[in-house]
Amino acid sequence: MADKLPTVRWGIVATGMISSWFVTDLLLPTWPNKRANHIIQSIGSSSQSKGQKFYDDYVLPNLAQNSGVNPKVYPDYNSVYNDPDVDVVYIGTPHSFHKQNCIDAINAGKNVLCEKAFTLNAADAKEVTQLAREKGVFLMEAMWTRFYPLIAELRRLLYEEKVIGRVWRTYADFGLSYDVESLPDDSRLKNLSLGAGTLLDIGIYSLTWGVLTLEENVGKGEHPKIIATQTLQGGVETLSSWIFNYSETGRHGILTSTSNVPVARSFARVEGSKGVITIHGATSSPESFTVKLHGEEGEGKLYEFEKPGRGFYWEADAVAVDLSEGRKEDEIMSLAETERIMGIMDEIRRQGGARFPSDTF
């Protein structure tokens, strides 16, 4: 069965934590609803030693799962872009580098999966997506959470079975706990030129839960009006709160992110006329949800989902299937949706006051 699945050869750009998670997941022997085979073809790092350590730590222990391919390790990124054996480049650098990394890869004719947040602002995002369209290559933002089977089942229950009746309101939060002011100035969590602040880093997940639970046809119907506020410490946003107002349906989203307070395990709640759905786990990597009808005794019905590793493989599978079928973008995480989400975050920052040096709004 596995040999009938599409196979994608990946070039990995950057060797930080997020890339290690992505690679480790792709080298698992299998996962639920597997739709593709994945090969780590090459690794690009800022130095040969860092690239070699990444290979030793995350690829070598799982080399048997890499279809017998021993990936090349490069001391730069351009070699990955120009490697003829690479089908698609995964970009795992900090936000502020995404724009140029994408441009370089696209100009080399490579398909691209780029980590979230896609760029620092909507103008940069549109520049990159336009280039991909002009060059005819595949491009997708790596918003992995959207590809979880849990999301598909949750939306089916909300909008096909309508298990909680008319959807009215969603609360969602993503909080971490660290002291921004004590971090070194060059930390990506403190340096504004690197996109510091919680909104692009983790708030994008709260935002995503808002649109996924409040929009029956995500991105294709009414877009929300936004009311936002932020707290800045030394110019760095450490707390964002915003309301989505869908005037046509009357729905609201109350959405937050912070680096001051850790998030609770039950991080989101969707409220309807007949009941409530509570979502559990990490905001970026949900594990289960509970459906409880109004007046129902007990804890409600728990829906749990199998997830070996962290769950990055589902977005990678989507890329592989899209490429095998000749598509240049993905239906779930379309380029228009990426542009829209970046625009929403621009508006939250415009109202709240958080700014990056490259902003023009």
TrEMBL record:
Keyword Oxidoreductase among UniProt keywords: yes
Top enzyme category: oxidoreductase
Superkingdom field: Eukaryota
Leader sequence segment: none
GO molecular function, one term: D-xylose 1-dehydrogenase (NADP+) activity
Listed Gene3D superfamilies: Dihydrodipicolinate Reductase, domain 2 (3.30.360.10), NAD(P)-binding Rossmann-like Domain (3.40.50.720)
Keyword hit for Oxidoreductase: yes
Keyword vocabulary terms for this entry: Oxidoreductase
Catalytic activity, EC: 1.1.1.179
Domain Gfo/Idh/MocA-like oxidoreductase N-terminal: 9-141
Protein name according to UniProt: D-xylose 1-dehydrogenase (NADP(+), D-xylono-1,5-lactone-forming)
